[in-house]
Amino acid sequence: MNVAFVFCGTDKIFSEFAAETFSTFEPNPPLGLAAIGTAALFRSCSVKIYDQTLMRKSNETLVREILSFEPHIIGFSCTSFNLENSIECAVRLKSQSKCLVFAGGIHISLCTLQVLSRRVFDFMMSGEGEEVFSEVLDTLIAGKNISSLEIPGLWHKDTGKNCGTAILKNINQPVIDRGILSLAQYRNKDALLRICHVTHFSAAGDAHTSADFAASPPTSKYTGTETANRSYKK
After folding, report:
1. Class of residue 133 by CB neighbours under 10 A (exposed 0-12, middle 13-18, buried 19+)
2. 145 and 218: one domain?
3. Which residue among 52, 60, 149, 157 sits deepest, i.e. has the most Cβ atoms within 10 Å of its Cβ?
4. Chain CA centroid to CA 154, Å
5. Which residue among 156, 181, 206 closes a domain?
6. Are 67 and 97 a contacting pair, CB within 8 Å?
7. Is residue 179 part of a domain?
8. Distance CA 223, CA 209 (A)
9. What pTM value is reported for the model?
10. What pLDDT, on the 0 to 100 scale, is given for residue 171?
11. What residue numbers bound the domain in which 228 lies?
């Protein structure tokens, strides 16, 4: 199965700003797409990521290159800055192929119903997509229709049913396969090479889980549960 992931460039209304006014305009490795792309690789899929902010190509050219890959499924990572570009490309792709087209990303998670009402994407993923997309792929690979798949975070265009937001059940996800990213072309590629200590806070403000994340297996690990006797208030 061929799986294509797309991160479109900024919409025209934002592209009038200086390229580095906001950090989002500086091409960064699309880690979210790489994460679910890694899940696809684990299922022996052929995976390709198209980052339009890096390619600097028109929507027409981008769509042509994606179709040349002959994908079975295409996923868009949508922010508030590239939503309209993503929708335009998705419409072009759907008019020229029969592949499934879906969307995820921060804007989808925050404005799921608004985007769903435009009836462009076959399905959308709200929240953390690794486990959701894994189930979608397993269903498709088994030759089944995903329309009957009901899991938190998976929204279907035809039903419009509120399926909430997906949260990872298992924090020990596979380490991102950097081979599907054109890292050498990113000025911010070191973002994948640092070790970052991350603490998760509960609604009460208590730090209760802690993890180290990095790009290489020896240092990427879950360090267990910790309780901090501090509360963080504004």
Report:
1. buried
2. no
3. 52
4. 13
5. 156
6. yes
7. no
8. 8
9. 0.76
10. 77
11. 194-234
Q: Rounded to the nearest 5 degrees, what angle is found at the Cα of 131, between the Cα atoms of 167 and 80?
A: 65
pLDDT in tens, 124-177: 999 999 999 999 999 999 999 998 888 999 999 887 777 888 888 877 777 888
Half-sphere CA count of 9, side-chain side, radius 13 A: 18
pLDDT at 223 over 60: no
Average pLDDT over residues 47-67: 94
- Alpha helices per DSSP H over 69-202: 83-96, 106-110, 112-116, 130-141
What DSSP character marks residue 17? S
For tokens 């335009």, the residue is 88
- Residue 173 within any structural domain of the chain: no
For 146, residues 6+ apart whose C-beta sits below 8 A from its C-beta are: 100, 123, 136, 139, 140, 154, 156
Q: Is residue 100 part of a domain?
A: yes
Indicate if 206 and 129 belong to the same structural domain.
no
127 and 203 belong to one structural domain: no
Q: In the sheet that 221-225 helps form, which strands lie side by side, from edge to edge? A: 196-201, 207-213, 221-225
CB atoms near residue 71 (< 10 Å): 25
| Whole-number Cα distances in Å, 217 to 46, 177, 220 | 22, 10, 5
Structure tokens at 61: 């050219």
Q: Looking at the structure, do residues 146 and 198 belong to the same domain, yes or no? A: no
Contact 86, 9 (CB under 8 A): no
